[in-house]
Amino acid sequence: MSGAGTPAVQTAGAPRGRIDKRRAIVDAAFTVFAREGYAQAGVDVIAAEAGVAKATVYNHFGDKETLLRQTIADHSDRALARNMAAVERLTGDGPDLRAMLEEVGGQLLRCYVDDASWALRRLLSAEIGQFPDLIDIVQGRAADRVLQALADRLGRLSLAGRLRTADPLLAAEHLSALLTGTMDTRARLGTRPLPDAELTAMTRAAVDTFLRAFAAEPVAPGPPPD
Fold this sequence. Notes:
By secondary structure, the protein is mainly alpha-helical. The protein has two domains: 15-62, Orthogonal Bundle (Arc Repressor Mutant, subunit A); 73-214, Tetracycline Repressor, domain 2, CATH 1.10.357. It is built from ten helices and no strands. Helix 1 packs across helix 2 (43-50).
C-alpha cells in the first residue's frame, strides 16, 4: 500500500541497544531490497541477514512497507552526510578557485558513483512505480539539501566577486549536471567501475565548462587530461 496514508519516517531517539539493532535491520533491508526487489524480499530473509528474530523487525518497523521507507530515508541521510562533507570544503579562502572547485567537484562525483549511491538509485528506480513518494524522501532528505548547500557556497563566491551569477541555485544545478550528467551511461548504472583517472578527467572538464560560464573574469583553459 502507498499514498497519502503512508506512515511517517521515524526520527525519535532510542536507547543504544535498540539503535544498534535498528541499524542492523536497516542495513540488512537495504541489502535484501537492492538484491531481490521489494516484492520478493522476505522479512524472514531480512531478519536472518540482520541476525535478529523476525519478530524484532516487526517490533521496530511494523510492516515491510514502513521498513522500505525507513531504509530509503536512512540511506538518504548517509548520502547527505557524505555529500555535505564535500560541499563544506568549498570556501572563499583558497587562492586558486579552479583547484578548489576541482577538489570539491571530485569529491561530489565520487559520492555519486560510490556503491551505496548506485544501490540507492537502482532501488529507487525499481520501486518508484509502486511507491512514488520514495522520490520525495530522497529529494527532501538528501538531493535538495545538497543542491541548496552548494548554491549557498556558490552564492558566497559570487558575493566575493569570484563568480558571476544572479541565480546561485541555477549555477549549482549546472555544476551538478556537468559533474554527473554522463555518469549513468559511463558507469552502466554502477555495473562498470570507473577508473580514478577517468573521474578526475571528468571533474576537470566539468569545472572548466562551469568556469567558462560563471567565472567573474575570463579564465584560461584547464590543463589537458593526463
